[in-house]
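User: quick one, sequence for these tokens?
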């Protein structure tokens, strides 16, 4: 099991390494949309920190829509332009992300995947599945995988639970697409930890924070989060867990204060 931190500012990466974490999780769209000079700075920061950027969240930038439909009928229309846009974004992102060591990329992007008003739900699910297929195809070329992230209903209206992520996964015709569980969102949605075991080998990445979306500490969050991590171990999960949090009062203090929680998580696997 590896523990990482979501850190979208390359200036933070050295601190992550110094606090004993195993990897960085960066925003994919920031890598894809960076200028050449900005990307060179990312590579320099990664080399100086000496820690891999093994994961990415934030696949698509805000303001992007992943659907094509007729608002009068709700039915799908020509999807080729969306497919081309998704493929171009994916190719640029993965050609760079692979240089940083990325192995798994999260498709969360709640605003981009939100179903437009009036669109037929089944058609939206089909088109979203096709987007995931394209992401998976491109990721495979660069030795990485895609995971579908459930987000609570306040953030999007499609794939709100791990159960629903598994359903969308069943529509995806690509064996390089898997699922993620974020314990903050599953808590908000009241989803049972039983779904961890039901996901089985399809579960390939995890996000965690306290239930107020802050960086956890052992003193205040053990009772909430240790059962979550034990459910992962009991289900045979042994991949990555990232802190995706609000880092208060500041990034460096928060990740340092989370070290006791991190040690407790590691101890679960050592039992």
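Assistant:
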């Amino acid at each position: 099991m590896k523990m990482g931190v979501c850190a979208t500012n390359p200036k933070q990466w050295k601190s992550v390494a110094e606090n004993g974490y195993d990897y960085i999780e960066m925003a994919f769209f920031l890598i894809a949309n960076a200028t050449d000079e900005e990307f060179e700075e990312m590579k320099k920061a990664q080399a100086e920190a000496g820690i891999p950027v093994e994961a990415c969240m934030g696949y698509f930038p805000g303001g992007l829509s992943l659907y094509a439909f007729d608002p009068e009928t709700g039915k799908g229309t020509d999807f080729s332009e969306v497919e081309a846009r998704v493929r171009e974004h994916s190719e640029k992102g993965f050609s760079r992300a692979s240089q940083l060591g990325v192995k798994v990329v999260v498709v969360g992007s709640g605003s981009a995947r939100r179903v437009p008003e009036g669109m037929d739900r089944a058609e939206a699910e089909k088109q979203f599945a096709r987007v995931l297929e394209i992401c998976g195809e491109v990721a495979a070329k660069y030795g990485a995988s895609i995971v579908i992230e459930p987000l609570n209903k306040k953030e999007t209206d499609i794939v709100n639970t791990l159960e629903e992520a598994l359903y969308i996964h069943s529509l995806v015709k690509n064996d390089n697409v898997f699922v993620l569980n974020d314990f903050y969102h599953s808590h908000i949605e009241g989803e049972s930890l039983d779904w961890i075991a039901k996901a089985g080998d399809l579960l390939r990445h995890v996000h965690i924070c306290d239930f107020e979306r802050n960086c956890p500490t052992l003193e205040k969050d053990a009772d909430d989060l240790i059962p979550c991590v034990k459910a992962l171990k009991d289900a045979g999960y042994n991949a990555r867990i990232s802190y995706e949090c609000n880092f208060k009062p500041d990034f460096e203090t928060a990740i340092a204060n989370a070290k006791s929680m991190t040690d407790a998580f590691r101890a679960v696997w050592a039992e």
